[in-house]
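Render this sequence as a predicted structure.
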Amino acid sequence: MSIAPPRQPRFVQLHREDRAAVRQELAAGLLAPAARTSAKYLYDPLGSRLFDAITELPEYYPTRTEAALLHRHGPAIARRLPKGATLVDLGAGNCEKAARLFGLLQPARYVAVDISVEYLHTALECLQRQYPVLDMLGVGLDFSSSLELPPEVGEGTRVLFYPGSSIGNFTPEEALPFLRQARAAAQGGGLLIGVDLVKPRAVLEPAYDDALGVTAAFNKNLLLHLNRLLGSDFAVHDWQHVAFYNESASRIEMHLQAARTLSVRWPGAERRFERGERIHTEISCKYQLGDFQSLLAAAGFTQIDAWTDERGWFAMYWAQA
């Protein structure tokens, strides 16, 4: 009697880096009156590993709080979600968060979406050994610009999973079109999304400026990534990590601040930075519970449910497409 070979995850790479376009985008941001870069450039291979370390820090509450929320409310959440749907994990990373839901949601297929399938290979191959029957697909996609899933994802109902409050990296104005794209991609299913809520400054700011300096290293590593992408000559020791809660905009802001007056050069251009001048590298918006529900409704979702942890620090929403 022959034994069928074990199932293997499939991979589709849709994102193709246009180096010229990347250099143009980075140069435009650095030459803007208020210099800026996209948060996605924080996540080169070293940046991704540093972020994994950040999630283990005592100051960084979101990962622990979200995990506890899902453990506590998991059965109630699962009752609202369609069984046997395709689980689409946006920004899957190491896939651990979605894997914890397999038993509750019983997906027919698992689709892990990240900017590079190379980052997904090991995680998906390990998961496939743990769940040999489950169909798995890795998709390399930069969904921050467009959330168009490939045909390989298949037809049928989809549950889009976007945990970790990554939606906070968008302003509310940017989040709305993204949520509309998510609703269209769900194909009659819905969106399960983690959202960080407004809380005291004394809790928020240490989460983005920890005592060990891991978040500072994560932010400064961006400079090394820019040097590789742009051919610039940033020197890490010339820059300081700055993170603070902007209460009027209800968001954490991360910046890199020049420790002295300096010039940064790259092929074809240069930028002078005065001492104390900043490069804006990331935001993390915090929401009131009802405000994010209104944003989901504005994107066309219906039957919106929300669960929070005991302290009301974090929320998980299910929004029917």
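Summary. The chain has a mean pLDDT of 94. Residues 61-200+287-320 form a domain with the Rossmann fold fold (CATH 3.40.50.150).
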